[in-house]
Amino acid sequence: MAVVSTPTTLTRALSAMDNAEVLRIRNDFPVLNQTVNGRPLIYLDSGATSQNPLSVIEAEQEFYEQRNAAVHRGAHHLAVEATEVFEDARQTVADFVGAAYEEIVWTSNATEGLNVISYALSNAALWAAQGRGDARLRDLALGPGDEIVVTEMEHHANLIPWQELAYRTGATLRHIPLDDAGVLRMDEAAEIVGERTRLLAFTHASNVLGTINPVSDLVTLARRAGALVVLDACQSAPHLALDVKQLDVDFAVFSGHKMLGPTGVGVLYGKQELLDVLPPVQTGGSMITTVTMERAEYLPAPQRFEAGTQKISQAVALAAAVNYLTETGIDRVHRWESGLGQRMVAGLEAIDGIRVLGPAAGQDRIGLAAFDVAGVHAHDVGQFLDARGIAVRVGHHCAQPLHRRLGLTATTRASAYLYNTTDDVDEFLDAVSGVRAYFRA
């Protein structure tokens, strides 16, 4: 069930987090209480996968110990209880992002969610040509002459599905370019998003640059063109207060494992009037009303897109993660992480031979920083830091076009979360300051 605000939680929401509170929070995360290469672990890779608090681990374990059964299928006691906690989890997540219960579809991850949208739009064209489904499908069907627009900073998960949709339908894929600082060229965006645009897909916050994109401005361009809007919220849902209704996006996706939840579960939000019209992508049990040997009729959303046995325990655990973030205060988390991000960027900019990607110190960003060390490959930087117990991400971060635009093949990325302290950041910066000397760059 969703967390109910109390005087205590409301008071906490107004207060700022500090290192003392973060150290108490860290005690909730068993994996952080270990050493790596003889050093206390400093985990700065939450942008890839966050760690799990005990409440999340215990929620999944409790499901298997007390309620393990198939949902929506049985009338016995365990099946009823399993269905209740599964659907309670859906409501908890819906409340967290300002959506209606029927607008939350469980997926395995955000990548699957984006592919569901892509293939549902492909099927819209097929169904419309066959005279199947709702008459509104014709308005959703893409074809030659139509355009899909993305940005040059997209994660591959929010690029390749649209490449493939363009291949399947004959539509044209275009992109909004970046300037040399990694900022969207909104002047060009206003020219690119036009009367042929049928879909605009973009990231809320870049997993490489840390940039928080101007959602309102981009949505305005899409609405002017009559285009659908798809928001990649993987790097925003764990860190920012997210209200999909206020943002006025048509679809949004995010993953559980980036927001204190387990792997294997993600969320697809879609406006109900769109989800109920779009054809399903996977078919089978649990998503049908009537089946004959010749045809099937499908349930409305969300079950329409949830064929087969679902990720039940993972959904329950994700709801526990959402409750943890809600109890801590997502706005407080954002303010704390933003401060850590600014500390990282300012410190990195002060080190000779370091190039930081994305907004400079003092400009708004999420709590991550990707950087290049002159003369040292990112993988060597990562191994150097790991030897000191510091976990970071290295590589192209599933954003090859972005790196190519900035003249790089790989970077090192440090990403903080609510369990990181200013001491973590300072130790990281101290270690980075010794990289070039160690490698004699």
From TrEMBL:
Domain Aminotransferase class V intervals: 42-428
Keyword Transferase tagged: yes
Needed co-factor(s): pyridoxal 5'-phosphate
Domain of life of the source: Bacteria
Matching PROSITE patterns: AA_TRANSFER_CLASS_5 (PS00595)
Molecular function as annotated in GO: cysteine desulfurase activity; lyase activity; pyridoxal phosphate binding
Keywords: Lyase, Pyridoxal phosphate, Transferase
Coiled coil segments of this chain: none
EC number: 2.8.1.7
The keyword Lyase appears for this protein: yes
One Gene Ontology term from the biological process aspect of the record: cysteine metabolic process
Signal peptide: none
Pfam families: Aminotran_5 (PF00266)
Catalytic activity: (sulfur carrier)-H + L-cysteine = (sulfur carrier)-SH + L-alanine
Family under the similarity heading: Belongs to the class-V pyridoxal-phosphate-dependent aminotransferase family. Csd subfamily.
Record function comment: Catalyzes the removal of elemental sulfur and selenium atoms from L-cysteine, L-cystine, L-selenocysteine, and L-selenocystine to produce L-alanine.
Name of this chain's protein: Cysteine desulfurase
Protein encoded by which gene: sufS
